[in-house]
Design brief:
This protein is an alpha+beta fold. It has helices spanning 6-23, 31-50, 75-87, 100-111, 117-126, 151-171, 179-194, 211-229, 234-246, 256-259, 267-273, 276-286, 292-299, 321-337, 347-357, 364-374, 442-445, 449-454; strands at residues 53-59, 62-65, 68-70, 91-95, 132-134, 382-385, 390-395, 405-410, 416-424, 436-440. Strands 3-2-1-4-5 form a 5-stranded antiparallel sheet. A 5-stranded antiparallel sheet has the order 9-8-7-6-10. The protein binds fe (ii) ion (2 copies).
Length: 455
């Protein structure tokens, strides 16, 4: 698991930008170029002692490195976002063995405004730079840490992998086959039918390296759980889960420069983004063995409950419950993940936002059900217990939604436990193990929630 700190990330971003600026004016041997590159290679090398690769890039106009997001970037990071976006680079992988020379070639290519992402890739290849590559190949959590992982985690990775392959097939101009997505959805539906809370924790995993797949899978899981909670039948669950997974698939056809553009979009750019529901519906329509109501839900996921959304031409159209479920799940995941110009908010705050949208953008009855399902302390909330321990809510209680199961991760003396302790806060033999006092900000405690949700 990555141990990279925010300070290291900040320093690395600053050095990279300093190098990009200097290479335009000075040769490689000049201290203004050599020094930042040497220090940068040092920092990256240290991180790469702990992990095989480093991921960084831009998601929704926000710079990320590993699990760190720069929602309020400094000037250097903003400049970096601007360079990446201008070239349409959304992600970058740096591998073990990266040298100041490699970084120099990379900085030169980024500095040249004329070089496109494709040319950049080709040039790196031509110059024998194998330690820096555009894009991210590996699914971040697919490593050996999780070999002992449960069936749940395997289902999660399978879903991420399926989404990645579907997106690749579309990008290569093909029509994705639905065999694998139907298989993974079948698994998720079976798990959920046994207990609708089983997969919920996984939907709170936030992985900016794989934002597109991660968001799709999370929306798929949240949609599925809500559909199960309101008592949909097996086919309904299957189609709802599929619709959640595929809802943003149309974004594969949208220019990455616009998708990842930092700052406000122009009216024309926003019009381009607004095309993704219909582009997605068109793709899903062509996929064999997928019910047409899935394509319908993809088309209408931004139409809004009061029809103030898009596509405008579809406003009079009938959309079913699946569509409205996906809209609730999409809003919740986007809010707890990343919003334009603001940091991700806690599950509890996200619920407040959803409640404010109930009856206008979102179906109020579904928002009510969603809130009921997630419980007073939604999964993914970090809480302080009356024992003074810090714990993570991992599961709502199936009967009493105020009383979830939690994983204690920090003991009463403030020490992080090597082995987190799973406890139920429900009444057992007339006693409670502990009671929740209040939610705690994970950033303040420097807790990486995702790793605990997967384990
Ligand atoms: Fe969307
Ligand atoms: Fe979405």
């Amino acid at each position: 698991m990555s141990e990279i700190t925010l300070n290291e990330v900040q320093r690395a971003a600053m050095l990279l930008m300093a190098a990009i600026k200097s290479v335009t004016f000075y040769p490689q041997a000049h201290p203004a170029v050599r020094q930042p590159l040497q220090e940068l290679a040092g920092i990256l090398g240290d991180i790469l002692k702990e992990q095989p690769e480093i991921h960084l890039g831009v998601v929704k106009g926000v710079f990320f490195m590993e699990r760190h997001l720069f929602v309020n970037p400094n000037a250097a990071v903003s400049a970096l976002v601007e360079r990446f976006s201008q070239k349409g680079i959304d992600a970058l992988t740096i591998y073990v063995g990266v040298t100041p020379d490699d970084l120099f070639r990379f900085a030169l290519l980024i500095a040249d405004r004329e070089t496109t992402a494709e040319q950049l890739s080709a040039e790196l290849e031509k110059n024998g730079v194998r330690t820096i590559r555009l894009g991210i190949d590996q699914l971040v959590y697919g490593g050996s840490d999780n070999e002992a992982g449960s069936a749940r985690s395997r289902t999660y990775f399978e879903a991420l992998g399926v989404m990645r392959d579907i997106i690749r097939e579309i990008e290569n101009g093909g029509i994705p086959s639905s065999d694998r997505i139907n298989a993974v959805v079948g698994n998720m539906v079976s798990e959920t039918m046994k207990d609708h809370t089983t997969l919920l924790g996984l939907a709170m995993i936030k992985d900016y390296d794989n934002y597109t797949f991660n968001h799709s899978v999370n929306v798929g899981i949240l949609s599925l759980a809500l559909a199960a909670y309101i008592g949909m039948d097996r086919e309904g669950l299957h189609d709802t889960n599929t619709a959640g997974l595929l809802h943003d698939i149309g974004k594969t056809g949208i220019d990455k420069n616009i998708l990842n553009k930092p700052g406000k979009l122009s009216a024309e750019e926003y019009d381009v983004i607004k095309k993704h529901p219909e582009m997605g519906a068109e793709i899903v329509d062509k996929m064999k063995d997928i019910h047409h109501r899935v394509a319908d839900a993809v088309l209408g996921h931004h139409i809004k409950f009061n029809r103030s959304g898009y596509p405008e031409w579809a406003k009079e159209r009938e959309f079913g419950t699946i569509n409205e479920i996906v809209a609730v799940a999409d809003c919740y995941d986007a809010t707890t993940t990343l919003r334009s110009y603001s940091a991700p908010v806690s599950p509890k705050e996200a619920m407040d936002i959803l409640r404010r949208l109930a009856g206008t953008a979102l179906n109020d009855k579904l928002v009510m059900k969603f809130e009921e399902m997630m419980g007073r302390y939604p999964v993914g909330t970090l809480v302080r217990l009356d024992t003074n321990e810090i714990a993570l809510v991992v599961r709502p209680h199936p009967l009493e939604n105020k009383i979830p199961s939690v994983k204690v991760i920090i003991d009463s003396r403030g020490e992080v436990l090597a082995e987190p302790k799973m406890i139920s806060l429900a009444l057992t033999d007339g006693k409670r193990a502990a009671t929740i006092v209040a939610p705690v900000d994970p950033f303040l405690k420097n807790v990486d929630i995702s790793s605990y949700l997967l384990a």
